Amino acid sequence: MNYDTVIGLEVHCELKTQTKCFCGCRNNFGDQPNSNTCPVCLGLPGALPVLNKTAVEYAIKAGLAFGCTINNETVFERKNYFYPDLSKAYQISQLEKPLCVNGIVEINVNGKTKQIRLNRIHLEEDAGKLIHDGIGGTVVDYNRGGVPLIEIVTEPDISSADEAVAFLEALKSTIAYTGISDVKMEEGSLRCDVNLSVKPAGSDQLGTRTEMKNLNSFKAVYRAINYEQKRQIEEIEDGHKIVQETLRWDDSIGESRSMRSKEDSQDYRYFPDPDLLPVYISPQQVLDLKNSLPKLPNVLKAEYMEMGLSNYDASLLTETKQISDYFTEVLTQINQPKLVANFIINETLRKLKEDGENKISANDLSKLLVLVDKKEISTTAGKQVFEAMWNTGESAESLVEKLGLKQMNNDDELKTMVESAITANPQSVADYKGGKTSAIGFLVGQVMKASKGKANPQKVNEMLKELLG
Ligand SMILES: [Zn+2]
């Protein structure tokens, strides 16, 4: 039998505020354990939370970036559960009236565009972090407890591991553009839970779902989905029922393990936090936040494709704001989108991967590309100069001079070289005249060799054709 896979994601994203969500403790990754704590975030009796305005604004920005509706009244609730990473025994979260509802994330998989609907984005506080010391003990760091998080919940619109990863990539890049989070999966500021079920292909009835937690890389999400989808199908084919449960993905062994039977929201006894008043957000506040957002990657991508770039190239250039800003800046000085895009994708991105920092300013790169565009140096020479600029910091002009890469623009000198190539290669000339047009390539090669790469191949080609009639 064929099966459909139905996937919904819950993505947690830590917000990059200066302080925590309900107290003045510092929000900073990597500080000495338990140094950023106070009676409020530890939940000591009598301590009162005060809502962080920036956290609310950041959560609204996230909602606006994905086209959500922003609720003008929002309420914080207590989600009760007992676990050592939560000293208060409840987490301040939102259930009934989240900040943002609905919304869309558009993904592109194998050339097909699909819209993944968002159910909601709500604001909540993070729990502390349990650290298993490897010798049988566990310690807890409450620095993370109370850090503002947004939880982004999708509708079950995702049907494969590829789609899930495309969704997370789109989500990550858009959030990074808004500047509300550093979305570092390796530091835990972006984490994902996967809800997955399978059903007979085409059936309207959803199967029983499981929830996988602890997914902290795109690769883990991909592997976990493929594993769980296969496991559920095998269980069903063996005549077993799928148990609704929470699973913990172990990426080191590539398997999931049962953590606990899955709770429903009523198990958490949500109720409005009596220490926090409802929050009212005016349409003007929403509008101001909307106007403060930069141009987002999906908009930029569409603009780049209008300029004639492929979907793939446009995606690469909008992966980070740093790169799209750079591309835009170079374009202001040399309006050749394809040439600029090719150099940034093939050279800059490659070097960035090695070095981690861009060593050539937009201004310097545009000067190099003007030389290539005016055919003063060939594209190959351009790449050579690029490499040298990256390594030495010298200007394009001085490197072209130093490396002797200036293209030969003296027509008489070039003509002499073309003529000698014709004389020296009678067989190729005969082939060409006999209709084998590819023979001209060999002759161009000979002239390029004689000129030590400084001739303009296009010009050589034209000159050969003219001389050979
Ligand atoms: Zn605190």
Commentary on this structure:
The structure is a single chain. Helix 6 (297-306) crosses helix 7 (311-317), helix 8 (321-333) packs across helix 10 and helix 10 packs antiparallel against helix 11 (379-392). This protein is α+β, with helices and mostly antiparallel strands. Strand 13 (210-215), helix 4 and strand 14 (245-250) form a beta-alpha-beta unit. The chain folds into three domains: 3-285, no CATH class; 295-402, no CATH class; 411-468, Arc Repressor Mutant, subunit A. The protein has helices spanning 39-42, 53-65, 161-178, 218-237, 283-292, 297-306, 311-317, 321-333, 337-355, 362-373, 379-392, 396-402, 411-424, 426-433, 439-450, 457-468; strands at 3-14, 69-70, 73-74, 77-80, 90-93, 100-101, 104-109, 112-125, 129-132, 138-141, 148-154, 190-200, 210-215, 245-250, 255-261, 271-272, 279-280. Helix content is 41%, strand content 20%. It has 16 helices and 17 strands. The model has no long low-confidence stretch (mean pLDDT 92). Strands 1, 2, 6, 7, 8, 11, 12, 13, 14 and 15 form a ten-stranded mixed sheet that branches. It binds zinc ion.
- Rg from alpha-carbon coordinates: 30 Å
Proportion of residues in β-strands: 15-25%
Ions and ligands: zinc ion
Q: What oligomerization state is this entry in?
A: single chain
Mean pLDDT: 92
Give the distance, in angstroms, between the N- and C-terminal Cα atoms: 67 Å
Shape summary: elongated
How many helices? The count is 16
- Category by helix and strand content: alpha+beta
Number of domains: 3
Roughly what percent helix? 40-55%
Low-confidence stretches: none
Number of strands: 17
- Biggest sheet: strands, sense, closure? 10 strands, mixed
